[in-house]
Amino acid sequence: xxxxxxxxxxxxxxxxxxxxxxxxxxxxxxxxxxxxxxxxxxxxxxxxxxxxxxxxxxxxxxxxxxxxxxxxxxxxxxxxxxxxxxxxxxxxxxxxxxxxxxxxxxxxxxxxxxxxxxxxxxxxxxxxxxxxxxxxxxxxxxxxxxxxxxxxxxxxxxxxxxxxxxxxxxxxxxxxxxxxxxxxxxxxxxxxxxxxxxxxxxxxxxxxxxxxxxxxxxxxxxxxxxxxxxxxxxxxxxxxxxxxxxxxxxxxxxx
Amino acid sequence: xxxxxxxxxxxxxxxxxxxxxxxxxxxxxxxxxxxxxxxxxxxxxxxxxxxxxxxxxxxxxxxxxxxxxxxxxxxxxxxxxxxxxxxxxxxxxxxxxxxxxxxxxxxxxxxxxxxxxxxxxxxxxxxxxxxxxxxxxxxxxxxxxxxxxxxxxxxxxxxxxxxxxxxxxxxxxxxxxxxxxxxxxxxxxxxxxxxxxxxxxxxxxxxxxxxxxxxxxxxxxxxxxxxxxxxxxxxxxxxxxxxxxxxxxxxxxxxxxxxxxxxxxxxxxxxxxxxxxxxxxxxxxxxxxxxxxxxxxxxxxxxxxxxxxxxxxxxxxxxxxxx
Lengths: 255, 323
Prior knowledge:
The complex is a heterodimer. Chain A is built from one helix and 13 strands.
Protein backbone atom coordinates (compact mmCIF):
# COMPACT_ATOMS: atom_id res chain seq x y z
CA UNK A 1 0.00 0.00 0.00
CA UNK A 2 2.86 2.26 0.85
CA UNK A 3 4.51 1.48 -2.50
CA UNK A 4 1.22 2.12 -4.31
CA UNK A 5 0.95 5.57 -2.63
CA UNK A 6 4.53 6.34 -3.56
CA UNK A 7 3.90 5.42 -7.21
CA UNK A 8 0.65 7.36 -7.32
CA UNK A 9 2.34 10.40 -5.85
CA UNK A 10 5.10 10.24 -8.45
CA UNK A 11 2.60 9.73 -11.26
CA UNK A 12 0.64 12.79 -10.15
CA UNK A 13 3.82 14.80 -9.92
CA UNK A 14 4.75 13.72 -13.45
CA UNK A 15 1.35 14.69 -14.80
CA UNK A 16 1.44 18.07 -13.09
CA UNK A 17 4.89 18.73 -14.51
CA UNK A 18 3.77 17.67 -17.97
CA UNK A 19 0.75 19.93 -17.70
CA UNK A 20 2.94 22.82 -16.59
CA UNK A 21 5.30 22.34 -19.54
CA UNK A 22 2.47 22.06 -22.03
CA UNK A 23 0.89 25.24 -20.63
CA UNK A 24 4.13 27.17 -20.71
CA UNK A 25 4.59 26.31 -24.37
CA UNK A 26 1.70 28.63 -25.29
CA UNK A 27 3.53 31.52 -23.70
CA UNK A 28 6.53 31.13 -25.95
CA UNK A 29 7.01 34.20 -28.10
CA UNK A 30 6.27 33.95 -31.77
CA UNK A 31 9.37 34.68 -33.80
CA UNK A 32 9.27 37.98 -35.60
CA UNK A 33 8.64 37.68 -39.32
CA UNK A 34 11.90 38.16 -41.14
CA UNK A 35 11.32 39.62 -44.61
CA UNK A 36 14.35 37.84 -46.05
CA UNK A 37 13.50 34.70 -48.07
CA UNK A 38 14.38 31.26 -46.77
CA UNK A 39 16.39 28.66 -48.68
CA UNK A 40 13.28 26.88 -49.95
CA UNK A 41 12.44 29.93 -52.02
CA UNK A 42 15.41 29.60 -54.37
CA UNK A 43 15.73 27.40 -57.47
CA UNK A 44 11.97 26.89 -57.67
CA UNK A 45 9.54 27.93 -60.34
CA UNK A 46 6.98 30.30 -58.85
CA UNK A 47 3.83 31.60 -60.48
CA UNK A 48 1.66 34.61 -59.75
CA UNK A 49 -1.76 34.77 -61.36
CA UNK A 50 -3.96 37.80 -61.78
CA UNK A 51 -2.02 40.35 -59.78
CA UNK A 52 -4.57 43.14 -60.04
CA UNK A 53 -3.69 46.73 -60.80
CA UNK A 54 -6.04 49.68 -60.37
CA UNK A 55 -7.39 50.44 -63.83
CA UNK A 56 -9.58 53.22 -65.17
CA UNK A 57 -10.21 53.05 -68.91
CA UNK A 58 -12.08 56.35 -68.72
CA UNK A 59 -8.79 58.03 -67.84
CA UNK A 60 -6.26 56.01 -69.82
CA UNK A 61 -3.56 58.66 -69.59
CA UNK A 62 -3.76 58.93 -65.82
CA UNK A 63 -1.10 56.82 -64.15
CA UNK A 64 -2.14 55.16 -60.93
CA UNK A 65 0.03 54.75 -57.88
CA UNK A 66 2.94 52.37 -58.24
CA UNK A 67 2.50 48.83 -56.98
CA UNK A 68 5.35 47.20 -55.08
CA UNK A 69 5.68 43.45 -55.05
CA UNK A 70 7.69 40.99 -52.99
CA UNK A 71 8.64 37.85 -54.92
CA UNK A 72 9.21 35.70 -51.83
CA UNK A 73 5.94 36.46 -50.06
CA UNK A 74 4.00 37.06 -53.30
CA UNK A 75 2.41 40.02 -51.57
CA UNK A 76 2.04 43.66 -52.43
CA UNK A 77 3.94 46.03 -50.17
CA UNK A 78 2.36 49.31 -48.99
CA UNK A 79 3.52 52.42 -50.82
CA UNK A 80 4.85 53.90 -47.59
CA UNK A 81 7.47 51.15 -47.55
CA UNK A 82 8.94 52.12 -50.91
CA UNK A 83 12.32 52.95 -49.40
CA UNK A 84 12.69 49.61 -47.65
CA UNK A 85 14.05 46.25 -48.81
CA UNK A 86 10.63 44.67 -48.57
CA UNK A 87 9.82 44.77 -52.27
CA UNK A 88 11.58 43.46 -55.34
CA UNK A 89 9.82 44.92 -58.35
CA UNK A 90 7.55 47.85 -59.01
CA UNK A 91 4.75 48.27 -61.52
CA UNK A 92 4.23 51.90 -62.42
CA UNK A 93 3.33 54.35 -65.18
CA UNK A 94 0.33 54.04 -67.47
CA UNK A 95 -1.71 50.97 -66.59
CA UNK A 96 1.07 50.12 -64.11
CA UNK A 97 2.71 48.38 -67.04
CA UNK A 98 6.27 49.63 -66.58
CA UNK A 99 8.50 47.52 -64.38
CA UNK A 100 11.57 48.40 -62.34
CA UNK A 101 13.73 47.09 -59.54
CA UNK A 102 14.41 48.43 -56.04
CA UNK A 103 17.49 50.62 -55.95
CA UNK A 104 18.47 53.16 -53.32
CA UNK A 105 21.15 54.97 -55.30
CA UNK A 106 19.16 56.02 -58.36
CA UNK A 107 17.18 59.22 -57.93
CA UNK A 108 14.48 58.03 -60.35
CA UNK A 109 13.86 54.86 -58.39
CA UNK A 110 11.02 54.59 -55.91
CA UNK A 111 13.49 53.11 -53.45
CA UNK A 112 15.87 56.08 -53.62
CA UNK A 113 17.60 56.62 -50.29
CA UNK A 114 16.95 53.08 -49.10
CA UNK A 115 19.37 50.20 -49.01
CA UNK A 116 18.11 48.43 -52.14
CA UNK A 117 20.75 47.32 -54.62
CA UNK A 118 18.38 46.10 -57.31
CA UNK A 119 18.09 46.62 -61.05
CA UNK A 120 16.43 45.19 -64.11
CA UNK A 121 17.13 44.27 -67.73
CA UNK A 122 15.32 42.41 -70.46
CA UNK A 123 16.55 39.78 -72.90
CA UNK A 124 15.14 38.84 -76.30
CA UNK A 125 15.26 35.19 -75.35
CA UNK A 126 12.66 32.70 -74.12
CA UNK A 127 12.49 32.04 -70.38
CA UNK A 128 13.58 28.39 -70.65
CA UNK A 129 16.61 29.30 -72.74
CA UNK A 130 17.90 31.80 -70.22
CA UNK A 131 20.15 29.51 -68.21
CA UNK A 132 22.53 31.98 -66.65
CA UNK A 133 22.95 35.61 -65.75
CA UNK A 134 24.51 37.28 -68.81
CA UNK A 135 28.16 38.26 -68.46
CA UNK A 136 28.54 41.95 -67.82
CA UNK A 137 24.81 42.36 -67.33
CA UNK A 138 23.98 46.05 -67.28
CA UNK A 139 21.01 46.47 -65.01
CA UNK A 140 18.85 49.56 -65.36
CA UNK A 141 18.48 51.18 -61.97
CA UNK A 142 15.49 53.46 -62.46
CA UNK A 143 11.83 52.69 -61.93
CA UNK A 144 9.43 51.98 -64.77
CA UNK A 145 12.17 51.19 -67.26
CA UNK A 146 10.82 48.01 -68.90
CA UNK A 147 7.42 48.30 -70.59
CA UNK A 148 6.14 48.73 -74.15
CA UNK A 149 8.11 46.99 -76.87
CA UNK A 150 9.42 48.59 -80.05
CA UNK A 151 7.31 46.24 -82.13
CA UNK A 152 4.12 47.94 -80.94
CA UNK A 153 2.68 51.38 -80.32
CA UNK A 154 4.08 53.89 -77.83
CA UNK A 155 7.26 51.85 -77.72
CA UNK A 156 10.01 52.49 -75.23
CA UNK A 157 12.75 50.10 -76.34
CA UNK A 158 12.80 46.37 -75.83
CA UNK A 159 9.76 45.72 -73.71
CA UNK A 160 7.84 42.94 -72.07
CA UNK A 161 4.62 43.62 -73.98
CA UNK A 162 3.52 44.73 -77.40
CA UNK A 163 0.74 47.29 -77.48
CA UNK A 164 -1.47 46.84 -80.54
CA UNK A 165 -3.21 50.21 -80.58
CA UNK A 166 -5.12 49.75 -83.83
CA UNK A 167 -5.54 45.99 -83.64
CA UNK A 168 -3.61 45.50 -86.86
CA UNK A 169 -0.14 44.42 -85.70
CA UNK A 170 -1.21 41.11 -84.20
CA UNK A 171 -4.99 41.46 -84.24
CA UNK A 172 -7.41 40.97 -87.09
CA UNK A 173 -8.32 44.63 -87.38
CA UNK A 174 -11.62 44.33 -85.58
CA UNK A 175 -12.56 46.79 -82.86
CA UNK A 176 -12.35 44.19 -80.14
CA UNK A 177 -8.72 43.52 -81.03
CA UNK A 178 -7.72 47.18 -80.69
CA UNK A 179 -5.82 48.38 -77.62
CA UNK A 180 -4.64 44.88 -76.77
CA UNK A 181 -1.44 44.46 -74.75
CA UNK A 182 0.35 41.25 -75.77
CA UNK A 183 2.68 39.98 -73.06
CA UNK A 184 5.76 38.60 -74.77
CA UNK A 185 6.31 35.57 -72.58
CA UNK A 186 6.09 33.58 -75.80
CA UNK A 187 7.23 34.64 -79.25
CA UNK A 188 4.63 36.10 -81.62
CA UNK A 189 4.45 36.64 -85.35
CA UNK A 190 3.02 39.92 -86.55
CA UNK A 191 0.62 40.20 -89.46
CA UNK A 192 3.48 41.21 -91.74
CA UNK A 193 5.39 38.03 -90.86
CA UNK A 194 7.88 39.49 -88.43
CA UNK A 195 8.75 37.12 -85.61
CA UNK A 196 9.06 38.84 -82.26
CA UNK A 197 11.12 36.63 -79.93
CA UNK A 198 9.91 35.94 -76.42
CA UNK A 199 11.24 38.25 -73.74
CA UNK A 200 12.68 37.36 -70.36
CA UNK A 201 13.19 39.89 -67.61
CA UNK A 202 16.26 39.60 -65.40
CA UNK A 203 15.77 41.26 -62.04
CA UNK A 204 18.31 41.88 -59.34
CA UNK A 205 16.48 42.09 -56.03
CA UNK A 206 17.41 44.68 -53.39
CA UNK A 207 19.46 42.04 -51.55
CA UNK A 208 21.30 41.00 -54.70
CA UNK A 209 19.42 37.81 -55.56
CA UNK A 210 18.73 37.32 -59.25
CA UNK A 211 15.37 36.42 -60.75
CA UNK A 212 14.36 35.58 -64.28
CA UNK A 213 10.78 36.46 -65.01
CA UNK A 214 8.37 35.48 -67.76
CA UNK A 215 5.46 37.86 -68.16
CA UNK A 216 2.55 35.78 -69.41
CA UNK A 217 -0.59 37.90 -69.49
CA UNK A 218 -2.18 41.23 -68.58
CA UNK A 219 -5.70 39.80 -68.65
CA UNK A 220 -7.75 38.13 -65.99
CA UNK A 221 -7.80 34.33 -66.11
CA UNK A 222 -6.72 34.12 -69.77
CA UNK A 223 -3.14 33.38 -70.68
CA UNK A 224 -3.04 33.05 -74.47
CA UNK A 225 -3.21 35.75 -77.13
CA UNK A 226 -6.29 34.36 -78.85
CA UNK A 227 -8.32 35.19 -75.72
CA UNK A 228 -7.14 38.76 -75.28
CA UNK A 229 -9.52 41.49 -76.40
CA UNK A 230 -10.05 45.18 -75.75
CA UNK A 231 -12.74 44.50 -73.19
CA UNK A 232 -11.17 41.49 -71.48
CA UNK A 233 -10.72 42.47 -67.80
CA UNK A 234 -7.26 43.99 -67.33
CA UNK A 235 -4.64 44.73 -65.85
CA UNK A 236 -4.18 41.42 -64.08
CA UNK A 237 -0.59 40.36 -64.37
CA UNK A 238 0.30 36.70 -64.57
CA UNK A 239 3.96 35.80 -64.51
CA UNK A 240 6.39 33.05 -63.61
CA UNK A 241 9.83 33.41 -62.10
CA UNK A 242 12.80 31.61 -60.69
CA UNK A 243 15.18 33.16 -58.19
CA UNK A 244 18.80 32.26 -57.46
CA UNK A 245 20.77 33.55 -54.46
CA UNK A 246 23.10 36.55 -54.69
CA UNK A 247 26.39 35.61 -56.27
CA UNK A 248 24.96 32.62 -58.16
CA UNK A 249 25.00 32.54 -61.92
CA UNK A 250 23.03 29.56 -63.19
CA UNK A 251 19.28 29.40 -63.40
CA UNK A 252 18.13 25.89 -62.68
CA UNK A 253 15.28 24.19 -60.90
CA UNK A 254 16.34 22.08 -57.97
CA UNK A 255 14.12 19.57 -56.19
CA UNK B 1 63.60 40.58 12.09
CA UNK B 2 65.40 37.56 10.91
CA UNK B 3 62.37 35.51 11.58
CA UNK B 4 60.18 37.69 9.40
CA UNK B 5 62.35 37.19 6.33
CA UNK B 6 62.81 33.48 6.70
CA UNK B 7 61.87 31.36 3.64
CA UNK B 8 58.94 29.93 5.51
CA UNK B 9 57.53 33.34 6.24
CA UNK B 10 58.06 34.54 2.67
CA UNK B 11 56.33 31.48 1.35
CA UNK B 12 53.47 32.08 3.75
CA UNK B 13 52.97 35.64 2.49
CA UNK B 14 53.20 34.58 -1.18
CA UNK B 15 50.53 31.96 -0.62
CA UNK B 16 48.42 34.50 1.25
CA UNK B 17 48.67 37.00 -1.61
CA UNK B 18 48.04 34.31 -4.22
CA UNK B 19 44.96 33.20 -2.36
CA UNK B 20 43.83 36.83 -2.11
CA UNK B 21 44.34 37.37 -5.86
CA UNK B 22 42.41 34.28 -6.79
CA UNK B 23 39.32 35.58 -5.09
CA UNK B 24 36.91 36.65 -7.87
CA UNK B 25 33.99 39.00 -7.70
CA UNK B 26 30.94 37.47 -9.37
CA UNK B 27 29.36 39.99 -11.77
CA UNK B 28 25.61 39.91 -12.07
CA UNK B 29 24.62 37.75 -15.04
CA UNK B 30 23.92 39.65 -18.26
CA UNK B 31 20.35 40.00 -19.30
CA UNK B 32 19.57 37.47 -22.05
CA UNK B 33 16.81 39.57 -23.55
CA UNK B 34 18.79 42.50 -24.83
CA UNK B 35 18.86 44.49 -28.05
CA UNK B 36 22.51 44.43 -29.04
CA UNK B 37 22.22 46.78 -31.99
CA UNK B 38 19.59 48.77 -33.85
CA UNK B 39 20.46 49.82 -37.40
CA UNK B 40 18.55 51.36 -40.28
CA UNK B 41 20.05 50.36 -43.65
CA UNK B 42 20.37 53.16 -46.19
CA UNK B 43 21.74 53.67 -49.68
CA UNK B 44 25.12 54.68 -48.32
CA UNK B 45 25.45 52.51 -45.24
CA UNK B 46 23.39 52.50 -42.11
CA UNK B 47 22.10 54.77 -39.39
CA UNK B 48 22.83 53.42 -35.95
CA UNK B 49 20.36 53.84 -33.14
CA UNK B 50 21.72 54.30 -29.60
CA UNK B 51 20.53 51.50 -27.31
CA UNK B 52 20.53 52.66 -23.71
CA UNK B 53 20.44 49.78 -21.25
CA UNK B 54 19.96 52.05 -18.26
CA UNK B 55 16.51 53.26 -19.27
CA UNK B 56 15.77 50.69 -21.99
CA UNK B 57 15.46 53.19 -24.82
CA UNK B 58 16.58 53.33 -28.41
CA UNK B 59 17.31 56.77 -29.80
CA UNK B 60 17.59 57.29 -33.54
CA UNK B 61 18.62 60.52 -35.24
CA UNK B 62 17.26 60.46 -38.79
CA UNK B 63 18.65 63.00 -41.28
CA UNK B 64 16.10 64.54 -43.66
CA UNK B 65 18.08 63.77 -46.80
CA UNK B 66 17.23 60.08 -46.73
CA UNK B 67 13.63 61.12 -47.33
CA UNK B 68 12.32 58.20 -45.31
CA UNK B 69 8.68 58.14 -44.34
CA UNK B 70 9.17 54.82 -42.58
CA UNK B 71 12.19 52.96 -41.28
CA UNK B 72 12.78 49.25 -41.50
CA UNK B 73 15.40 48.59 -38.83
CA UNK B 74 17.70 45.61 -38.53
CA UNK B 75 17.68 44.59 -34.87
CA UNK B 76 20.30 42.28 -33.39
CA UNK B 77 19.30 40.46 -30.23
CA UNK B 78 21.01 38.36 -27.58
CA UNK B 79 21.69 34.76 -28.58
CA UNK B 80 18.50 32.76 -28.61
CA UNK B 81 16.29 35.80 -28.05
CA UNK B 82 13.39 36.84 -30.23
CA UNK B 83 11.08 39.79 -30.63
CA UNK B 84 7.59 39.41 -29.31
CA UNK B 85 6.20 41.82 -31.88
CA UNK B 86 6.18 41.12 -35.58
CA UNK B 87 8.96 42.88 -37.43
CA UNK B 88 7.23 45.88 -38.97
CA UNK B 89 8.24 49.19 -40.44
CA UNK B 90 7.91 52.27 -38.24
CA UNK B 91 6.52 55.62 -39.35
CA UNK B 92 9.19 58.25 -38.80
CA UNK B 93 6.61 60.44 -37.06
CA UNK B 94 5.73 57.71 -34.59
CA UNK B 95 7.50 57.79 -31.28
CA UNK B 96 7.02 55.29 -28.53
CA UNK B 97 7.26 52.10 -30.56
CA UNK B 98 7.90 49.26 -28.12
CA UNK B 99 10.16 46.31 -28.84
CA UNK B 100 9.77 43.45 -26.40
CA UNK B 101 12.66 41.03 -26.42
CA UNK B 102 12.15 37.56 -24.98
CA UNK B 103 15.39 35.89 -23.95
CA UNK B 104 16.30 32.23 -24.15
CA UNK B 105 15.67 32.13 -20.41
CA UNK B 106 12.14 33.51 -21.02
CA UNK B 107 13.03 36.84 -19.47
CA UNK B 108 11.45 39.86 -21.12
CA UNK B 109 12.79 43.35 -21.71
CA UNK B 110 10.93 46.17 -23.38
CA UNK B 111 12.68 48.97 -25.22
CA UNK B 112 11.06 52.21 -26.35
CA UNK B 113 12.09 53.79 -29.64
CA UNK B 114 12.42 57.56 -30.03
CA UNK B 115 13.04 59.01 -33.50
CA UNK B 116 14.54 62.46 -33.81
CA UNK B 117 13.73 63.61 -37.33
CA UNK B 118 16.38 66.08 -38.37
CA UNK B 119 14.57 68.42 -40.75
CA UNK B 120 15.57 71.89 -41.86
CA UNK B 121 13.14 74.27 -40.24
CA UNK B 122 11.18 76.38 -40.57
CA UNK B 123 9.30 75.30 -43.67
CA UNK B 124 8.77 78.45 -45.75
CA UNK B 125 6.33 78.74 -48.65
CA UNK B 126 7.06 81.15 -51.48
CA UNK B 127 3.84 83.18 -51.32
CA UNK B 128 1.87 83.44 -54.59
CA UNK B 129 0.14 86.55 -53.20
CA UNK B 130 1.52 89.64 -51.52
CA UNK B 131 -0.03 92.23 -49.26
CA UNK B 132 -0.79 94.33 -52.34
CA UNK B 133 -1.63 91.74 -54.97
CA UNK B 134 -3.74 88.63 -54.61
CA UNK B 135 -3.01 85.69 -56.91
CA UNK B 136 -6.07 84.50 -58.84
CA UNK B 137 -6.40 80.81 -59.58
CA UNK B 138 -9.09 79.01 -61.61
CA UNK B 139 -11.05 76.35 -59.81
CA UNK B 140 -10.05 72.93 -61.16
CA UNK B 141 -6.75 74.14 -62.61
CA UNK B 142 -4.34 71.20 -62.65
CA UNK B 143 -1.12 73.07 -63.32
CA UNK B 144 -0.64 74.45 -59.84
CA UNK B 145 2.85 74.49 -58.38
CA UNK B 146 3.77 75.33 -54.81
CA UNK B 147 7.28 76.48 -54.06
CA UNK B 148 8.89 76.01 -50.67
CA UNK B 149 12.10 74.83 -49.03
CA UNK B 150 10.81 71.28 -48.91
CA UNK B 151 14.25 69.69 -48.99
CA UNK B 152 12.81 66.62 -50.63
CA UNK B 153 12.15 65.48 -54.17
CA UNK B 154 9.70 62.83 -53.04
CA UNK B 155 6.16 64.08 -53.70
CA UNK B 156 4.67 61.38 -51.48
CA UNK B 157 6.20 63.07 -48.44
CA UNK B 158 4.45 66.37 -49.09
CA UNK B 159 0.85 67.23 -48.37
CA UNK B 160 -0.76 70.40 -49.68
CA UNK B 161 -4.21 71.81 -49.25
CA UNK B 162 -6.31 74.93 -49.55
CA UNK B 163 -7.82 76.26 -46.36
CA UNK B 164 -11.10 78.10 -46.73
CA UNK B 165 -12.26 81.03 -44.62
CA UNK B 166 -13.96 78.63 -42.21
CA UNK B 167 -10.67 76.86 -41.59
CA UNK B 168 -11.58 73.70 -43.51
CA UNK B 169 -8.84 71.87 -45.38
CA UNK B 170 -9.32 70.94 -49.05
CA UNK B 171 -6.39 68.81 -50.25
CA UNK B 172 -5.03 69.45 -53.71
CA UNK B 173 -5.47 66.55 -56.11
CA UNK B 174 -1.98 65.13 -56.58
CA UNK B 175 -2.70 62.71 -59.41
CA UNK B 176 -4.24 64.39 -62.40
CA UNK B 177 -4.70 63.63 -66.08
CA UNK B 178 -1.16 64.83 -66.56
CA UNK B 179 0.21 62.26 -64.19
CA UNK B 180 1.15 62.29 -60.55
CA UNK B 181 2.48 65.38 -58.83
CA UNK B 182 6.23 65.80 -58.82
CA UNK B 183 8.91 67.86 -57.13
CA UNK B 184 11.57 69.75 -59.06
CA UNK B 185 14.54 71.34 -57.32
CA UNK B 186 16.20 74.46 -58.69
CA UNK B 187 18.76 77.02 -57.58
CA UNK B 188 17.42 80.55 -57.41
CA UNK B 189 19.21 83.78 -58.26
CA UNK B 190 19.99 84.15 -54.58
CA UNK B 191 21.80 80.83 -54.65
CA UNK B 192 19.18 79.14 -52.50
CA UNK B 193 17.64 75.84 -53.46
CA UNK B 194 13.91 75.96 -54.06
CA UNK B 195 11.61 73.03 -54.54
CA UNK B 196 8.56 73.22 -56.74
CA UNK B 197 5.80 70.76 -55.92
CA UNK B 198 3.85 70.72 -59.16
CA UNK B 199 1.08 69.20 -61.29
CA UNK B 200 -1.43 69.75 -58.53
CA UNK B 201 -5.10 70.26 -59.23
CA UNK B 202 -7.44 72.54 -57.33
CA UNK B 203 -10.46 70.41 -56.43
CA UNK B 204 -13.11 71.29 -59.03
CA UNK B 205 -15.90 71.15 -56.44
CA UNK B 206 -14.57 74.15 -54.50
CA UNK B 207 -16.45 77.43 -54.54
CA UNK B 208 -15.02 80.85 -55.37
CA UNK B 209 -13.43 82.64 -52.43
CA UNK B 210 -10.23 83.31 -50.55
CA UNK B 211 -8.09 80.36 -49.54
CA UNK B 212 -4.77 80.02 -47.76
CA UNK B 213 -2.26 77.40 -48.87
CA UNK B 214 -1.14 74.90 -46.28
CA UNK B 215 1.70 72.44 -46.76
CA UNK B 216 3.41 69.83 -44.67
CA UNK B 217 6.54 67.80 -45.09
CA UNK B 218 6.80 65.06 -42.51
CA UNK B 219 6.91 66.88 -39.15
CA UNK B 220 6.98 70.42 -40.57
CA UNK B 221 3.94 72.54 -41.44
CA UNK B 222 3.46 75.98 -42.95
CA UNK B 223 0.56 78.15 -44.09
CA UNK B 224 0.74 81.18 -46.34
CA UNK B 225 0.28 84.59 -44.79
CA UNK B 226 -1.72 85.88 -47.75
CA UNK B 227 -4.58 84.00 -49.39
CA UNK B 228 -5.15 83.23 -53.07
CA UNK B 229 -8.46 83.91 -54.73
CA UNK B 230 -10.28 81.07 -56.46
CA UNK B 231 -12.55 81.98 -59.36
CA UNK B 232 -14.43 80.18 -62.08
CA UNK B 233 -12.35 79.83 -65.24
CA UNK B 234 -12.73 78.85 -68.87
CA UNK B 235 -12.36 75.13 -69.51
CA UNK B 236 -9.62 74.67 -72.05
CA UNK B 237 -8.83 70.95 -72.12
CA UNK B 238 -11.10 67.97 -72.17
CA UNK B 239 -10.70 64.26 -71.50
CA UNK B 240 -10.18 62.50 -74.82
CA UNK B 241 -13.45 60.69 -75.45
CA UNK B 242 -14.56 60.57 -79.09
CA UNK B 243 -17.76 58.56 -79.45
CA UNK B 244 -20.06 57.38 -82.18
CA UNK B 245 -23.74 57.90 -81.50
CA UNK B 246 -27.00 58.28 -83.35
CA UNK B 247 -29.27 61.33 -83.55
CA UNK B 248 -31.23 61.80 -80.34
CA UNK B 249 -28.53 60.12 -78.25
CA UNK B 250 -26.20 61.66 -75.67
CA UNK B 251 -22.49 62.15 -75.14
CA UNK B 252 -20.40 63.42 -72.24
CA UNK B 253 -17.87 66.20 -72.33
CA UNK B 254 -15.49 66.08 -69.37
CA UNK B 255 -13.04 68.79 -68.45
CA UNK B 256 -9.48 67.66 -67.83
CA UNK B 257 -8.67 70.72 -65.79
CA UNK B 258 -10.65 73.90 -65.14
CA UNK B 259 -14.02 73.29 -63.54
CA UNK B 260 -17.15 73.54 -65.66
CA UNK B 261 -19.66 76.08 -64.41
CA UNK B 262 -22.72 77.87 -65.69
CA UNK B 263 -22.90 76.34 -69.17
CA UNK B 264 -25.14 78.53 -71.24
CA UNK B 265 -24.79 76.93 -74.64
CA UNK B 266 -23.64 73.70 -76.24
CA UNK B 267 -23.43 73.31 -79.99
CA UNK B 268 -21.77 71.79 -83.05
CA UNK B 269 -20.47 74.07 -85.75
CA UNK B 270 -21.69 72.54 -89.00
CA UNK B 271 -21.07 74.35 -92.27
CA UNK B 272 -20.24 77.51 -90.35
CA UNK B 273 -23.59 77.45 -88.57
CA UNK B 274 -24.32 76.67 -84.91
CA UNK B 275 -26.32 73.51 -84.37
CA UNK B 276 -27.62 73.93 -80.82
CA UNK B 277 -27.50 70.89 -78.52
CA UNK B 278 -29.55 70.08 -75.46
CA UNK B 279 -27.78 70.22 -72.08
CA UNK B 280 -29.22 67.43 -69.96
CA UNK B 281 -27.07 67.82 -66.86
CA UNK B 282 -23.86 69.39 -65.69
CA UNK B 283 -21.55 69.44 -62.72
CA UNK B 284 -18.09 70.88 -62.22
CA UNK B 285 -16.39 68.02 -64.04
CA UNK B 286 -18.65 67.10 -66.92
CA UNK B 287 -21.71 67.93 -68.97
CA UNK B 288 -24.09 65.45 -70.56
CA UNK B 289 -25.40 66.65 -73.89
CA UNK B 290 -28.13 65.34 -76.14
CA UNK B 291 -27.86 65.51 -79.90
CA UNK B 292 -31.07 66.59 -81.68
CA UNK B 293 -32.82 64.12 -83.92
CA UNK B 294 -32.17 66.19 -87.01
CA UNK B 295 -28.39 66.39 -86.57
CA UNK B 296 -26.60 65.62 -89.85
CA UNK B 297 -24.36 62.58 -89.95
CA UNK B 298 -20.61 63.11 -89.80
CA UNK B 299 -18.02 64.01 -87.18
CA UNK B 300 -18.67 67.30 -85.43
CA UNK B 301 -16.58 69.08 -82.85
CA UNK B 302 -18.66 70.21 -79.86
CA UNK B 303 -18.38 73.58 -78.14
CA UNK B 304 -19.71 74.83 -74.82
CA UNK B 305 -20.02 78.34 -73.49
CA UNK B 306 -19.42 78.80 -69.76
CA UNK B 307 -20.66 82.08 -68.28
CA UNK B 308 -19.21 85.07 -70.09
CA UNK B 309 -16.17 83.20 -71.38
CA UNK B 310 -15.31 82.47 -75.00
CA UNK B 311 -16.51 79.04 -76.22
CA UNK B 312 -14.55 76.00 -75.06
CA UNK B 313 -13.95 73.06 -77.37
CA UNK B 314 -11.86 69.89 -77.53
CA UNK B 315 -10.54 71.29 -80.80
CA UNK B 316 -9.23 68.19 -82.53
CA UNK B 317 -11.56 65.33 -81.79
CA UNK B 318 -15.28 65.18 -82.32
CA UNK B 319 -18.51 63.31 -81.95
CA UNK B 320 -19.40 61.05 -84.85
CA UNK B 321 -23.10 60.98 -85.71
CA UNK B 322 -24.35 57.99 -87.63
CA UNK B 323 -27.81 57.06 -88.78
